[in-house]
Amino acid sequence: MRSAYRLLTRAYETGRMVTQTAVISSDTQIQHDVLEELKWDARVQPNEIGVAVKAGIVTLTGWVDSYLKKWSAEDAALRVTGVMAVANEIEGPSTDRC
């Protein structure tokens, strides 16, 4: 569910007070949108990534086999409207080599 709020802010260019409408998405809607975005990103398999949202902050979890997939999932989440920040806790291949 999305809610619209009217905000009174000061315009940067003129210094005048203006009204703006902000759209706020619920955490459930953001989670759904992030999962849908992951489905459309060819670099990531959506079944590899878990998505949790609290107060607009998305936490990504899971395990992937490359750093490209890890950062691609974060990019996909950041493209979603309503996402305030992303905590990328996806695990990937170790950089330790013996």
What is the average per-residue confidence, as pLDDT, rounded to a whole number?
Answer: 83
**How many beta-strand runs?**
5
Helix-and-strand structural type: alpha+beta
Q: Strand order, main sheet: write it out.
A: 3-4-5
Q: Can you characterise this structure?
A:
The protein has two helices and five strands. It is of the alpha+beta class and 98 residues long. It has a domain of 63 residues: 2-Layer Sandwich (Histidine-containing Protein, Chain: A), CATH 3.30.1340. A three-stranded mixed sheet has the order 3-4-5, covered by helices on one side. A two-stranded antiparallel sheet has the order 1-2. Helix 1 packs across helix 2. The radius of gyration is 17 Å and the shape is elongated. The termini are far apart.
Index terms:
35% strand, Histidine-containing Protein, Chain: A, elongated, alpha+beta, 98 residues
